[in-house]
Amino acid sequence: MAAVAAMANSNPIDWEGSCTEAATAASWNQIRAWLRFTAERPLCRQGRLAQQLVIRGLTTSGSAYQPRNNLRSALRHAQQSLDDISLFGQYRRIIPASLVAAKPSPREPSLSMVPAHISRPAYAKTGSPPTWETEIPILDEEEIECLQAASEVARDALALGGSMVRAGVTTEAIDDEVHKFIISRDAYPSCLNYMGFPRSICTSVNNVIAHGIPGKRPLEDGDFVNIDVTAFKRGFHGDTSATFGVGQVDPPGVALMEATRESLELAIQACGPGVLLATIGEVISVHAEALGYSVSQDLTGHGIGRNFHQNPLICHHYNEEPGEMVPGMAFTIEPILCQGVATGIQWPDGWTITTTDGGRSAQFEHTVIITDQGVEVLTA
Q1: Which site in 237, 272, 337, 350 is 20 to 30 Å from 314, CA atoms measured?
Q2: Which pLDDT tens digit goes with each residue over 21-52?
Q3: Residue 231: enclosing H or E segment and its boundaries?
Q4: Residue 265: which region, alpha, beta or left (left: phi > 0; alpha: psi -120 to 50)?
């Protein structure tokens, strides 16, 4: 998810971050204004899932909205990132070009481009997902086959999007092609109009943690971008994402991407019947901390199936969320590792979340199903 409300037809502002170049005074004034605008705005600790729980009047441990730290603390983190810019490497950091708070609407062409014969999720017209159920769905063999079909579309769509990543290509162009591919497989792009999301995929560049809206900014050599794809087919959603480098990414960026991929792989290996759900967060946190990275607590993995997001919540950090894995349980694992502090600020567009200190983040995601023997990755 990439452009801010009032900048629907413009581009995000970025500034060059390098070992030798500090932000200009104008850039710093913009950053101060942005942080002042957002520092007291609530951002849920558990991301989009907890946001929905709060909206629907439900509660889970640790999932309520938490105000950002006070403005002075937020500004201090941002100032430190400018003073110690060499800690994070060389890349462009993305900030909003407008502080006007408003959500962009789904583009009518995108909605009308979905052929009438393609089955749509319930929220496709209204933008309102169904109320969460407290119970964790357990899928039977027929349902798992449907989930597999949706996951395969998402997997192949992600591969297409990743193949387009290169300098000069816009994330909007990637979104357009992935949208066309998904509907060519008689599937619906799950992101489109989910709670009003305006595009068919999420594209998060450099310091954007998640939910970046595809836009007109061309990718640049040294960027990296997470592409998050979900497809709805045969009544089920399949969800996956990966972070792709653009051209020659600097060594700190490459190391971050590799560490995040490894965290996902280790978490999947730890899954199986009878394993505590909280084990996922422990495994990821141990690996991330050993390599000097922080783990985002603002976003979580989630159950998936007939609903895009459903129980259980899958926390990627140390946590005490209850529950054990059982055969037939389907969920996503999608760790986000950050170079600096893992707290995020939500843009005025109501979607895009960036790191408070401007450090980069990376994310990899798979949809998995617990089996009698262990775990199966459906989006691999």
Answers
A1: 350
A2: 333 344 445 555 555 544 444 443 333 333 33
A3: strand 224-233
A4: alpha
Q: Mark out the alpha helices in 270-373 (DSSP H runs).
A: 278-290
109-122 tens-digit pLDDT? 456 679 999 999 99
Question: Where residue 92 sits, what CATH number does that domain have?
Answer: 3.90.230.10
Q: Which domain holds residue 133?
A: 5-377
Look at the chain and report how many structural domains it folds into. Answer: 1
Residue 273, Cα to own-chain centre: how many angstroms?
A: 27
276 touches 320 (CB < 8 A):
no
Burial of 117 (0-12, 13-18, 19+ CB in 10 A): exposed
Sign for the CA dihedral angle at 181, 186, 190, 195 comes to positive
Instruction: Pick the closest to residue 1 from 332, 225, 161 (CA basis).
Output: 225
Work out the mean pLDDT of the chain and round it to a whole number: 81
One-letter amino acid for residue 144 of the chain: I
Vertex 98: Cα angle to 95 and 100 (nearest 5): 130
Q: Whose structure tokens read 């199966």?
A: 376
Q: Specify the long-range contacts of residues 67-73, CB closer than 8 Å, at least 24 apart.
A: 67/40, 67/41, 67/42, 68/38, 68/39, 68/40, 68/41, 68/42, 68/43, 68/343, 68/345, 68/356, 69/39, 69/343, 70/39, 70/40, 71/35, 71/36, 71/39, 71/40
DSSP track, 72-122: HHHHHHHHHHHHTGGGT-SEEEEE-S-----PPPPPHHHHHTS-TTS---T
Residue 109 has which token pair?
A: 């062409």
Q: Which alpha helices (H) appear in 136-277, and where do they start and end?
A: 141-163, 171-184, 251-269
User: Which residue from 103, 57, 261 is spatially nearest to 197, judged by alpha carbons?
Assistant: 103
Reported as a single tens digit per residue, the pLDDT across 253-275 is 999 999 999 999 999 999 999 99
Q: Which residues pair with 331 in a beta bridge?
A: 303, 368
Q: Checking DSSP bridges between strand 361-363 and strand 336-338, what pairing results, if any? A: antiparallel
